[in-house]
């Protein structure tokens, strides 16, 4: 693989990453699909049209759309075709000038959500996170529910409030029951939290009643994103029995602007932690779906690194989550998103939520400026970054997902 | 209101109902929005274009689309404009011939889903249902959770598996834990159930961070549908702790083909049951949102009436559900759907699920052919019908939602 001219070999957005995004330029009314290289974005429709590919190739035609959804519909062979063309284009020195004509510096464009979310499911795939939450929320019971090691627990979330990195998050209001109170009160959440997760963007639609086997699941996994599942713990604790989280989560979920193709993460594949008891056959298959991903994440609160969650320790694989999601015959749509659930490792500094990092407020975090936090204050900014190992010691960057809390609209 | 020629005055689809649907004719590649009158469907684009309205009115232009979503985006003043024109058109004898030119007999068209579902939320708004389920699933605890009378409990469901009445439902497979077993087994659901509900179709999109007050909620309620929230009780019982129902519900939810405008249900408005304790202010407002709906439902299993659930006994009002759904700042999209949760009254024959009717299998139902059922067998057909009082002793029909169970794709 030739290195893209003038880009340091260790740049996280080198010519083996090539994540997809969507951008607006100052004078454009409609978003365009782009591919990130270094600190620039390649105007994909521009290059495809200049090359004449947009008329002759179905995948190229789909990439002229303002979102990835048409491209996601085409499925994995189209994705592979597009990626092969991109890798070749960036590796060919004779094409450098042609590419350069369609590059925009990132600071001159506005990045927007590159897909229309269809259904959104959030999983709960970290054993350490589920154990911590169980200890905090249900101290009188076993931390893991009896089903936890038999299936990847998940639930549907609100897809219309998935927002792109950089979008402010308005502090949600709602009901919560103060400790030892009989009845609830209403007001802005006082325990506003994050969940550092990985999100998976799904394509290759399927029909209702047709489960996707675990060995085929990978064909529907287009790419990965960093994901922040903002959570109002006080709302959640009061509302979630018996039907699960609702308003404690549905106000906003933030995703990184760049979708890194799963195909760019070959070197990041690792074995899963041991699964004991052995899961049922539909969650095992021939074993090819049982891969983890070595993605290192970093959570910053107002600039201070407060956690480094290790994705490689997640108990359930992305293919297991997708196979489970469809085993009852639920259809997949282009633009479906599922997230992993909070990524937490064994060490305290590897926990992916403030609930766990501050142990429900008992052990506040200390920031570099000396201030303390258990949960988020208005004006606080949370930024999650991530990267994975790439070929030849390079890094595959996942960019960042960032958001700032603005005051509630409904003062309590 | 003149009566539409040749239609019996007591026809449930008379000229004061006028529900919206979408239909395909034999030679059409694209669905068209229609309005039901009697046992015919008015080709709305046909009449609007013949009238020249399609070019001059924004709402009429939106009704040329193959789904209601553009029309739903326009909001309640557009809906009122369209309904006023429709009521006038059907009331004017001089327009009878013009209308007749655009009618199709229902048995010559195929009805399809008239909207692209955006987010879907299912509530749990019947006190009797929640009490029955609590007694069955959690016999060692109080039947209602402490939050139940303080907020309308809800959760997000899968919108891509919302299907139109008449669509077959493939029996879902999945994990369930047999009674007294330590570990789960995999196979087709053995406790496949229904939930007779009312669905609400939402329009008038809102921005993230902007709650809809209860007094404004009605402006976002376009219309109502009959809704069957098929439920695999064995999958649900094993998976739902702690994050709520997932695969036990996400394989299919069926809706009636006709969306009855809320504006057609003025005579059906009734007082809510008493709410004690009084809910928080955001669920009360000036009181205008605290209306129930006198909709009578009938559930048939293979032709035998097994239940008559009374919607008027629902504890939470549709406006309360919508206000609650957005109080944390969650945005509304055109095409959002929320359902009421199972409608159950006090009497045994008023229960809207087989779980309750058979008391979890202990008291099977006896059908007219002498056979017994607790849960659904392959080949069984469930049909839910409904109607509400209309003006002058007439009836507003909601039509039906029907579905037949086909065998599982994954035999266990």
From TrEMBL, chains A, B:
InterPro entries, A to Z: Fumarylacetoacetase, Fumarylacetoacetase-like_C, Fumarylacetoacetase_C_sf, Fumarylacetoacetase_N, Fumarylacetoacetase_N_sf
Domain Fumarylacetoacetase-like C-terminal: 121-405
Pathway field: Amino-acid degradation; L-phenylalanine degradation; acetoacetate and fumarate from L-phenylalanine: step 6/6
Limits of the Fumarylacetoacetase N-terminal domain: 17-114
Residues given in the record as substrate binding sites: 124, 138, 236, 240, 342
Ligand binding (Mg(2+)): 229, 249, 253
Cofactor(s) demanded: Ca(2+); Mg(2+)
EC number: 3.7.1.2
Residues holding Ca(2+): 122, 195, 197, 229
GO biological process: homogentisate catabolic process; L-phenylalanine catabolic process; L-tyrosine catabolic process
Catalytic residue positions: 129 (proton acceptor)
PANTHER family the UniProt entry points to: FUMARYLACETOACETASE
Name of the protein in its database record: fumarylacetoacetase
Organism listed in the record: Kytococcus aerolatus
